[in-house]
Request: fold
Amino acid sequence: MYKIGVDLGGTNIAVGLVDGEHRIAVKKSLPTMAQREAEAIVADIAKLCFEVCADKGISLSDVETIGIASPGIANHNTGIVQYSCNLPFKNFDIASSLKEKTGVNNIKVENDANAAALGEAVAGAAKGTLNSVMITLGTGVGGGIIIDGKIYSGFNCAGAELGHIVIEHGGVPCSCGRRGCWEAYSSATALIRMTKEKIEEYRQKGLSTVMLDAPKINGRTACDAMRTGDEAGKEVYDRYVSYLAAGLTNIVNIFQPEVISLGGGVSNEGQSLIDALMPLIRSEQYGHGFLDELTEIRIAELGNDAGIIGAAAL
Amino acid sequence: MYKIGVDLGGTNIAVGLVDGEHRIAVKKSLPTMAQREAEAIVADIAKLCFEVCADKGISLSDVETIGIASPGIANHNTGIVQYSCNLPFKNFDIASSLKEKTGVNNIKVENDANAAALGEAVAGAAKGTLNSVMITLGTGVGGGIIIDGKIYSGFNCAGAELGHIVIEHGGVPCSCGRRGCWEAYSSATALIRMTKEKIEEYRQKGLSTVMLDAPKINGRTACDAMRTGDEAGKEVYDRYVSYLAAGLTNIVNIFQPEVISLGGGVSNEGQSLIDALMPLIRSEQYGHGFLDELTEIRIAELGNDAGIIGAAAL
Reply:
């Protein structure tokens, strides 16, 4: 029996037909064009649902459920997206709208970061565990919590905003309006800011760094420089890793999950990032020294497919 | 049908016979004398279990379960206290020991802060909710998480160390070995430290504060001074409330629980503390402005009985 997972982003709509083993059989996408009416976006989601089925030679009536991963606050009880800063949704009943357009009755809605965490839990880095947390290090810092195999998002479906844990009281401004949030220190955006600040510092002091010649500053600039032995690159990387480790240690102390999986652009640094983080986390986490079992930190495995696979598993 | 709740502390053992409505029918206690052998401590627990039953004219065989709330890492799956810094327990099978001494087969073990959170959830400030968090503001900052009516403590039973979320990266040293933990800013111990620092600051600057004449500095000194209009007292109180609000906002953003209940010595400040916290939390929490339902912060209701009532409800 197949399920459909919809990963609805601010840029693209990706729809996958997912089999009973959490594998994507067919995947198709269209641009979201987020400035459109909500109903027009849902019409394109329905179109993609028909297409992935047609490609596999089945009918939509053969599909068990459709799960939608949406940015913002998605109420899994009502099927309503209450609010999203990236889409024109305000208390929009996306489940009913898609049900009408597809004829599929069983439609689930969830926040995209939560759905991705479920994807990694059923088929990725946290496969085989009941309790895990996924952290996405991208434009922001996203979080998804899996407890007893299910997404936890609080009584109002707005929980797991793990990027908005203040780790520096009164620190740098965050996009959410607070100061000192983890997101403001551990997102790719924060890494780029730290890189630019360091380049400016070196420039003003008349010191040399390969980063002064970088044509464009991105999340890899400091990491690449560090690997060539560049001191400024190392300073940025060490500072970034220090904050990331502090935030991850917080997550360990709060949840003691079996696995924390790291996704998003920064996680492309791979095992070397884990190797840099683990000594800091192990030396500071609660229970180190007297617990037999400690949380493992792993790179997420499903990449951009986590949302589709998680949505299908809702 | 009665249950027994045991609140095992570093100073006292308190045992209560609890009825089906989560009310304590009989309560008795003995000093823990924590330097003793573990078995001697359990013998006193068993003695108190017999006594609370005798007082009610029932037999221990009429008791459905005994729940034990212990400091440290208590494994609810195995009945073993793996580690406690306040008691001589190291991988001690307290459940088997108490079973042998009482003849009661159904014995549950849980961390004391987690048990207190369950107590508040079944019979106190969070009664009627499925998802709540209890924060204890005492010598340290303790946390207990209730999800779907059950205690959540991670895969290794060491979770919910909410006091050990770093909220000031590289900040003041915490008893756990990290720097900048919430506990180091929001415990009664931290409030006393802030009070002493402020008094010293005023003394050095030759400024006047009623706190200079306080015979003994405790967690109420700054609050009492503030209420008389003392500027130094207000500065301490405002700083303390600012950190406490930041930590509580973190808890809201992580869990979006229906209720956060505040226990421990500092919570004796009561509603005036809530009134000082709420504007700061509401203005900074994720979802403020577009969520219909927001977490309520309440003073815990059960006081020292929360551990007994929670243990009985395990």
